[in-house]
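for the recovery benchmark. tokens below, seq after
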């Protein structure tokens, strides 16, 4: 009984194989025309057909499958190219930012070298205020006559220089 069942299955598979060969001949396709990758895909397709118990081989399914794979391949290439362009743009932005950072660090270092400490600035301001206050005090104590003319003093200095 078991042998009979196996024999029937072998016969049905052989007839199915013959049917597929006839279908390929109708489409003018030889198995030797396919590359190894295509044959691997056909093997996978045959496995799926056997697992799903599909017994009608339709070339439109294979064409649809091929077109879908080709579309995916083209989309993947396009995505890869777009990502490469985006990566180049990002890398150039990073390089530009790095150059800006280096320039700003040099500027910061130069500015820090020129920076005067707060203590020195406070001392200078204190000295200037003290000097200004002393000059104002001296000016207040200085008595200038009412008939004093600065122009006459300048004329006398000029005449002394000419001699």
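predicted aa per position
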């Amino acid at each position: 009984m078991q042998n009979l069942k196996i024999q029937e299955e072998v016969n049905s598979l052989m007839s199915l194989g013959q049917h597929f060969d006839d279908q390929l001949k109708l489409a003018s396709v030889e198995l030797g025309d396919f590359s190894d990758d295509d044959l691997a895909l056909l093997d996978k397709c045959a496995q799926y057909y056997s697992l799903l118990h599909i017994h009608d081989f339709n070339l439109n399914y294979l064409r649809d499958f091929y077109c879908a794979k080709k579309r995916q391949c083209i989309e993947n290439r396009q995505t890869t190219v777009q990502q490469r362009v985006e990566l180049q743009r990002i890398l150039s932005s990073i390089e530009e930012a790095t150059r800006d950072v280096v320039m700003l660090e040099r500027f910061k270092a130069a500015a820090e070298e020129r920076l005067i400490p707060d203590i020195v600035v406070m001392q200078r301001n204190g000295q200037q205020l003290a000097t200004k206050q002393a000059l104002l005090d001296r000016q207040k104590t200085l008595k200038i006559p009412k008939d004093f003319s600065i122009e006459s003093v300048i004329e006398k200095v000029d005449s002394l220089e000419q001699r």
